[in-house]
Write a structure and sequence with these properties.
The structure is a single chain. By secondary structure, this protein is an alpha/beta fold. Helix content is about 35%, strand content about 25%. It contains eleven helices and 13 strands. The strands form four sheets. The protein has a five-stranded mixed β-sheet with strand order 1-7-6-4-5, with helices on both faces. Helix 8 runs parallel beside helix 9. The longest helix is centred in the last third of the chain and has 22 residues. Bound molecules: oxa(dethia)-CoA. Oxa(dethia)-CoA binds next to helix 2, helix 6, helix 8 and strand 12.
Length: about 325
Amino acid sequence: MGIAIIGTGSYLPELRLTNRDMEMMVDTSDEWIVSRTGIKERRICPKEYSASDLGVFASLKAIEDSKIKKEEIEFIICATITSDMYFPSTACIIQKKLELENIPSFDFQAACSGFIYGLEIAKGLIVGCGYKKGLVIASECMSRLTDYTDRSTCVLLGDGAGAAIVSFSEKEGIIDSFLSSNGNYGDLLYTPAGGSLYPCSFETVEKRMGFMKMEGSTLFKIAIYSMSEAVNKLLERNKLKKEDISIIIPHQANYRIIAGVAKNLDIPIEKFFINIEKYGNMSAACVPVALDEAVKEGRIKKDDLIITVAFGAGLTWAANLIRWIK
Ligand code: UT7
């Protein structure tokens, strides 16, 4: 008895911010951004929308893809670091917008590793608590945390959402997950203000404390190491060879990080699904958006073994071993 993904969906806002646009905002160049990150453009959420809206649009597509009725959904969980507000949770706001009532809904936060954590939480709810079907969402409006005067971060980030319908399954779809974190590295990637430590105030606005801060080059090295470790752990404890894996769906923080992981693991880069050029880093939304695109592009077939892997603020890092049984 286990769980399986029976539908995926993603939503990317229409508005594109290209590298040429970035050149007009900060001292950067298309050449620098492409060669150092692989990013060509990113999507930006319009002012009137927020993470819950992007989450709803992605969820509707996942529901359609799964061919279930939305009323069959028994829980909604949402990974986000850009929730609509302190509270209520973005998951509850999505529940209202989907017109679903009286089911558990909650947010959780593992930054860029959020969706991967979410599949394991969903497995616990289904296998451990008896729910039959649920909605796992990752939705991010990173542009709302982005300091567009800081060239070292603003060129990296974009907005988007991905979702999956998960269901009770006799054949195991989420075979294993590796989840980890190390809070000692928390100050390498964070947004100081907007929480209970530094609530929004004139001071936090003046000091630009509501924007994301990052120590990029240290993170770069840790990202390669920890994502490689997560994949290796899953291969080892499931007694699999690299060749058994059809495709790897990595977090899209930097093309060079993905290439570094591929080299470390001695797995051809062609086995990694890469769409960073179109969207940049959408935090938790990267993995489900990439998974949905890989499925829709025919890169994933029935019975394929897939590994998802991510790394993010916390620091957190995680991976799922998935058998595609849809
Ligand atoms: O989602 C997970 C969290 N995020 C990450 O994991 C990000 C990980 N880190 C990275 O992807 C890379 O470290 C960056 C893309 C952020 C930076 O690339 P890098 O090759 O590590 O560059 P760097 O930070 O060592 O900076 C090299 C130079 C510096 O100039 P100097 O000091 O050598 O004169 C920077 O000021 O590049 C400069 N620089 C830029 N130049 C043009 C930094 N950002 C830019 C920019 N345009 N946008």
